[in-house]
Write a structure and sequence with these properties.
15 helices; 14 strands; alpha+beta; 6-stranded mixed β-sheet; about 525 residues; Beta-Lactamase; Alpha-Beta Plaits; 6-stranded antiparallel β-sheet
Length: about 525
């Protein structure tokens, strides 16, 4: 009990120290040294427990968990270099020789790591959503990893319990050894997968690990396309992989299609003799009919199928129980990794987008303008910048309320983004003003764009409660192909917008020449 109390004090102290260091820019040398000492202490506790040879005692188990938590906190938190300590601890607890409470420990650590980002700032603050997203990752992955480790250990130890006599004893010992090797190999796979920074990297790591689980295996990983009826293959390794990577395959009547639709794993053997004709990946893939056995498992996120992993072998019993088990483990872990990557990308997108309109924030917009101006400097290409004013916003705010005004801004932002297209950048300059940067656009194209935008806004109807509003818009634009006038574009476009209010067309485009004073304006 004294060790548990000491561990609690260390955990509380390290958390407070980590919060103070986070405000100062991150962990220093002293914190890294303290983290290394705590990790060594946790390893000592684990080693003594392993040497004792008996069942795991909860005080030592809890003490090791608290020391691991403290070490990870002091080195930068979950996602830092020392985070794999959690996976090593959970794998050790799930080992049949220890039989510790891996799932309970994983849930506790996940709860602690999940609450830490929430408690590190004010409850209601602008970064609340990013802190919730950061806390959700360990809250999900740590208990799930513990469950996977326990499932593997339990399955390998008890899966052959129906056998009797000396043969059952020998087989059980062999299964225990195989389980230990699989857990150790899986631990390395989990650590490598956790370090994958993008979707392609996570898929490649998984495919390589599975391909190394047997001889002459073909591993194919695919994700559902946007239509939900076909499969985009991201990775395929092995003898039957030719022509698959980067392809889109129809799923009708295939093992891959059935796995995705049913969200269930499947194994088929005895296919080489022709007695059980089966299409593994797709009827449009010639390699799908040349395997002797196959296994497939779905990739799921939030109880929804997003793809599958397919393992094929040229021999009729090539995908046996060990391959099927490795496939189950890898599909579960890859699903968690994909969810983590998507959450990270969603957080990054939230940080670079304005909350109300979903447009780029002004600093990112200005970066785009600077990149576009380089083409003006290097190749003499023209560029245009527009300022769009929603003149009816103030009237809508005063008569229908600010919620209706926000609705008007959001619809106008979506309309402007659709008109500008994917090659342009759009941002919100101020309350009722938007800016659009269009690369490679000369005066004639700029005037055509402004006229088209005016027509689109004129036909736009925005539902604001029981009322329907048509936005009143003015547009000013400035065009140049001289690098020395790029910085003046925004100011000239704003002046052109102000002048457009007195023009029947509602827009005005100004051309900036090399020498100030030689520009012209035409409605």
């Amino acid at each position: 009990m004294a060790a548990v109390a000491a561990g609690l004090l260390v955990a509380v102290g390290s958390s407070v120290w980590a919060l103070e260091a986070e405000a100062d820019g991150g962990p220093g040398a002293a914190m890294w040294a303290a983290s290394a000492l705590l990790a060594a202490a946790a390893a000592s506790v684990v080693f003594r427990e392993q040497r004792s040879g008996g069942a795991s005692s909860w005080p030592r188990t809890l003490t090791a968990a608290l020391l691991c938590f403290s070490a990870v906190r002091l080195s930068g938190g979950y996602g830092a270099l020392s985070a794999p300590l959690y996976l090593v601890l959970l794998a050790w607890m799930a080992h049949p020789a220890v039989d510790g409470p891996a799932l309970e420990t994983g849930a506790t650590l996940g709860l602690l790591e999940g609450l830490f980002p929430l408690l590190s700032g004010r409850l209601l603050s602008p970064d609340l959503m990013s802190r919730v997203a950061a806390g959700a990752i360990p809250f999900i992955t740590l208990p799930a990893s513990a469950a996977v480790f326990e499932w593997m250990a339990r399955g390998r130890v008890h899966g052959l319990s129906g056998r009797t006599g000396e043969a059952a004893t020998e087989t059980g010992s062999s299964a225990s050894g195989e389980s230990s090797g699989l857990i150790e190999r899986t631990s390395g796979f989990v650590r490598t997968l956790a370090r994958a920074g993008n979707l392609g990297g996570a898929i490649h790591v998984t495919a390589v690990w599975l391909a190394d689980s047997g001889s002459d295996l073909t591993v194919t990983v695919g994700l559902l396309s946007s239509d939900g009826e076909s499969l985009d293959v991201y990775e395929s390794l092995g003898p039957l992989s030719s022509g698959r990577v980067g392809g889109n395959f129809d799923l009708e009547g295939s093992v891959a299609g059935w796995t995705i639709k049913s969200r269930k794993s499947v194994s088929r053997d005895g296919l080489a003799g022709g007695g059980r004709p089966v299409t593994t990946l797709s009827r449009t893939d010639p390699s799908s009919s040349r395997c002797g056995s196959c296994s497939a498992a779905p990739l799921t996120i939030s109880d929804r199928s997003i793809g599958m992993i397919l393992v094929e072998s040229p021999v009729e019993d090539g995908t046996g129980p060990l391959i099927a088990e490795a496939l189950e483990v890898s599909s579960s872990l890859l699903g968690l990794a994909i969810e983590k990557i998507l959450l990270r990308e969603q957080k990054r997108d939230l940080e670079t987008r304005e909350g109300l309109t979903g447009l780029q924030r002004l600093p990112d917009f200005m970066d785009f303008v600077r990149r576009t101006s380089r083409d003006v400097y290097r190749f003499g290409r023209s560029m245009a910048l527009f300022v769009v004013g929603i003149d009816s916003l103030e009237e809508v705010n005063s008569s229908l309320g600010y919620r209706s005004g926000d609705r008007l801004l959001k619809v106008c932002a979506d309309c402007l983004s659709g008109i500008a297209g994917p090659d342009a950048a759009v941002t919100r300059l101020s309350g009722a003003k938007f800016a659009v940067c269009m690369p490679g656009m000369d005066q004639a194209a700029a005037e055509a764009f402004a006229e088209s935008a005016m027509r689109s806004f004129a036909s736009l109807r925005v539902s604001c409660g029981s009322d329907e509003v048509s936005p009143r818009v003015v547009i000013g634009g400035a065009v140049t192909r001289n690098e020395r006038r790029v910085e003046a574009l925004c100011g000239e476009a704003s002046r052109a917008m102000a002048g457009a209010r007195s023009l029947p067309a509602g827009f005005q485009v100004t051309v900036l020449l090399a020498v100030p004073g030689q520009g012209g304006a035409r409605p």
